[in-house]
Amino acid sequence: MTTKDHEHAGHGMIDEVESPAVGSEYERERVPQRALKGPSSFWGMYAGEHTAGTEFMIGPLFVKWGADAFSLIVGLLIGNLLAVLTWRYLTAPIACSERLTLYYKMEKIAGRGLVTIYNLANGLLFCFLAGSMITVSATAVGPFFPEGTIAMPTFSSTMPTGPAWIISCIVIGAAMTFVALKGYDVVALVGHYAAPWMFLIFLACAIVTLGKLGTTDVWALLTPPPGTKQSISFLGIVLFAWFCNAAMHIGMADLSVLRFAKKPSAGWASAAGMFLGHYVAWICAALLLIYWVKERGVNPQEGKDPGTMVNDAVGWAGLICVIIAGWTTANPTIYRAGLAFQGVLPALSRTGATLLAGAVCIAAGIFPAFAMRLLDFVGVYGTILAPVGGLIVVDHFLADLVGIDRDPAEKSGASFNMAVLVAWLVPVLIGLSMTSVSPVNPWGFEVPPWYLPLPCTIACGILYILLSKFAGGRAAAAA
Amino acid sequence: MTTSEKSPYHTPAKFVGLAALAGTILPPVAFLFGAMSLDIVKGIMFVSTILWFVAAPWWMKVD
Fold first, then answer.
1. Domain match, A367 and A450 both
2. How far apart, in whole angstroms, are the C-alpha atoms of residue A181 and residue A345?
3. I want to staple A79 with a disulfide (CB 3.0 to 4.6 A). Which of A10, A60, A238, A360 is the partner?
4. Do B62 and A14 touch (CB under 8 A)?
5. What is the ipTM of this complex?
6. Per residue in A133-161, pLDDT tens?
């Protein structure tokens, strides 16, 4: 899992910010030819972005859910391959053709007012994501103190574990927010430098774990004991790997990054993030918990916090990795959430908006529920944000074919395209009502949230076509 | 990752950086084969981590 720190692939720095609230290079124009970058700029970026602190949670959560070896080794391979193909053959071609940020393209289709709503949803989800990263980073604080000083959360923890835990989260979250106030160039650079080392730390954790377990038979280790309840199927693993970054590929958030690519083939660079971060790192992290279950008698349903597991495996280097992996991804997330809030409340200063975002992130981080239910959360995140990709696919590939306007809000000068709002919200609300996170489920069955991004995106695209046609076809979609 | 062509520190930084990466991954391999104790592994990895963050800014450049 990752956030978009959107170090845009070019221009010497990492401060690309795609928000209507601020001005940055080419934010409201096509990226010019001279600013385009070759594929090498994207490989490092994707590798760094998708090796984040939350990877330490996702691997162990698969163990908790009783995922078998075939699902983990083959299912993750297939799911990540599908994600790479989506980036390569859907996101990158649109990005290289349009060469616009997601926000500006959305504004042309949906109108500026509706983009503000999208921004708010994005900002809040960013806060919860950054909160889970604060949670993960805070687990690395515990091993620096005598055992028991800070009660660490487990998979079943939803509430703060005590005053020491709360203080840890507040200190780490406040430090992240402070840096976000200063801008995140330095932290993004640290993330860039850390990427190859961080990947090796994940690998080192797994190798040491194999040494402790006295075997190199990874398949046997990943096979759950007989009688283990399998709460996630092979298909579930495939879909999770495919859609945990749904907002970025089918949701088209990466238009903002890949618009700088010379050719759509730059989309292959996502393979670096998927296969290093979401394949090798997840399996390495899973092995950490498997050791604690087999040798230390930890209940897999309760799990063990990442800080303790990593410290036990590789010591302080691992703790530094947990903190840096969480920090480098949470910090730009706080920054971007602040920008999103500023887009919604323009009267807020940048400082005020970032402080607000930081406070929400810290509050979310104090409650371990977000990190401990990370699989559900990223599914919800994708389900809410991915469908806007359906609108863009329709606008880019199908509008002329089905006889509706391209960029209707821009053509009509409207600030709020009702067809877009309805097409976006209806599938999302119906989809979420089928999940365990919904307070009300009228369907009599539950669907894991990560099954939903693709169907909701397709439904959103179809509804958008129908509503636009109903509203009068060409030049009438925007109200 | 691209290499800097101008910095005089580039070559030594590259050497240190590569050594640091080796110091991050080779000790765990040695532990796996029983050739090194875990305490030594952790010590070498910590020193390698510091060396990496010293060397990387001189070696790696953001485009």
1. no
2. 17
3. A238
4. yes
5. 0.92
6. 899 999 998 888 888 888 999 898 989 99
